[in-house]
Amino acid sequence: MPTGQSDSGNGGGVGLVLPGGGARAAYQVGVLSGILEILDPQRSPGFANPFAIICGSSAGAINAAALACRADDIHYAVNRLDELWGALHTGDIYYADAPRLLRTGLRWLTMVAAGWFMPGLHRQQPHSLLDNKPLGQLLTSTVDFDRLQGNLAEGKLRALAITATAYTTGQHLTFYQSNGTIKPWQRSLRQAIPCHIGVDHLLASSSIPFIFPAQAMLVGGLTQWCGDGSMRQLAPMSPAIHLGADKICVIGTGHKDDTHTSEQAIDPAYPSLAQIGGHALSNIFLDSLSMDVERMQRINDLLALLPENELKSLALRPVSTFVITPSRSLDEMALAHIQQLPYAARTLFRVLGVSSASGPTTGGALISYLLFESSFTRELIRLGRADSMSRVDEVKAFFKEAQQ
User: What is the reported pTM?
Assistant: First the structure.
């Protein structure tokens, strides 16, 4: 579906798009805190949620759901997220103790070493590098999904969308819960599914491939094994547009200079598994967003050239965006906090090639997605808030236009 086309039947309102990024998603909380400070510095009791539509992928899906479930008190929602991310530890997301990591490592090693002549071992193969059962327990205890339908019914929110990828069919799935006025849509390898969103959707959306296990979801009466919502997400802003947004606020988690285009060594060493893994995750989480923003701007520029009467005859409309991304490298920030990881997890990542040295070959990208420690997440929150507060005029102008 071209950018700018809506299936909602009644467009309007600001859509919030929160892409994935593992631990990097703490940055989004800081940005949201700054935006609310700019829009409502007095914390007015009746201040309305400025986001009619909230969409999230991967860790961004967790932030999206927490906001939507507390859309009736958006200040409280952001404060609660701030508290949760600011007190986080790796063990709250995945098991990082030595016995479990060693057991998983031995299972992988046994399968690789002996699986070719002992086929029965494949039935006992580990499903992922890490076990994220603690994340499921955390989400169950902190996200109150019972409030979501009430917020939708009372008009505090129009829709919440959570994306995932079906390993079984290769489709990119958008699970959404709305006020009942939005029809599902389907495009090539993309399908929207109206449903009641719960913890399973968040676990599916945040199941980073190879690192966290896939989640079984019921889709059209059939079981689909689903993984991270940022995979195959060629147009991260598309769900917000389908759901009716005519303005979109995007909070990314990638710094523009993390591609490290500066001068490199004449004879670089062979890349480590951590370096390769970091690039793979950056490709999943970051690259599609930057391309979608560029595509959106090109389409808007083309639509601006059309006479108004011709524009009305098209099934397209201009959609303005406000995009904010980190002003510093999150890779470098993560490396400064690597000592905060539990010893067993730190040892595992060092085996993969992560080191605390500075530079593009030290695995900083990989660790920045998996370092769920409060010293790092609090720094991300502070950076996000500072980045939004540095763009006060832009924030005010964007949301003022949305209210007109």
Answer: 0.87
